[in-house]
Amino acid sequence: MIRLAVIGTNWITDQFIDAALVSGKYQLAAIYSRSLSSAAQFAEKYSNLESQPRLFDDLQALASSDDIDVVYIASPNSLHAPQAMQMMRAGKHVICEKPLAANEKLAQQMFAVAEEHQVLLYEAFMSMHAPNFKLLQAQLEHIGPISKAFISYCQYSSRYPKYLAGENPNTFNPEFANGSIMDIGFYCLSSAVALFGEPQSVQAQAQLLKSGVDGSGSVLLNYDGFEVVLQHSKTSDSKLPSEIQGEQGVLQVEMISTGKKVTKIMRGQEPEDLTLEQHANPMFYETLDFAEQFYNNKMNPARKTRSLIVAKLLTEIRRQTGVVFPQDAI
């Protein structure tokens, strides 16, 4: 069993723990929070486990523990790089929530530390591991040469009313390396890279909030013979599916982040629902993917390549749209 520690006591940590435990390949070994009381409160929901997780409020103590194999990091984006490198320097493998780091330079440093200390660094991007995403990839050749693609994820943030009321939630705070492209837009960008690789060029625009981050935006990725348009927003909703257009047909996917439904429409034919049944927890498949690398004791080079390409593109998109983080000056 992989002995799992978590940094972060929020809903996404709960979802990852649930997926990890259901996979049968992990045991919850430790929980870190800035206060032991918060860690204890979070741990209450796992009181039925045979082996109870240890509680930590000191990161170095967590890093030094001999009872932990891998640390899952779900702290604010700005803390991903320093916390991950601290864990890896102590010999711990790291699963880091997307985005891996605030910028490309930090992402490169993280992989350098992983290589130096011979540990795994894994970006938790759940979408590409889902059966329906893999189905989408497999179907690309059936619709003929790609002509155009549109990938959309727009969802009104539950924290946006707080921002409008004058508060400063992490979601819209540059101090935490956040904003639309770093959060919800990541699914669009990383999905495009997973499907089509690194683009030849990128053009981006965004609507900036007074806090300094983007509330919404769009990105144009140019490939050889086709283009991919990304649409992302945390200040409005969209019900449009993502779509890949080929010369012979069209593939549509609802909810690109989880692959809710996949439809193929060949020219002159009726729509065909290709959707596969998937696990209720969308993070289930990434826990299996990491476990495979863990037991092989070898990082999947394709995962590393995608993460670095996405970090490079995110940094360039922010440069073009004028979103600056404190970490960019480091």
TrEMBL record:
InterPro entries: Gfo/Idh/MocA-like_OxRdtase_N, GFO_IDH_MocA-like_dom, NAD(P)-bd_dom_sf. Pfam families: GFO_IDH_MocA, GFO_IDH_MocA_C3. Residues 2-123 form the Gfo/Idh/MocA-like oxidoreductase N-terminal domain. GO terms for molecular function: nucleotide binding. It comes from the Bacteria. SUPFAM superfamilies: Glyceraldehyde-3-phosphate dehydrogenase-like, C-terminal domain, NAD(P)-binding Rossmann-fold domains. Residues 149-251 form the GFO/IDH/MocA-like oxidoreductase domain. PANTHER family: PTHR43054, SCYLLO-INOSITOL 2-DEHYDROGENASE (NADP(+)) IOLU. This is Oxidoreductase.
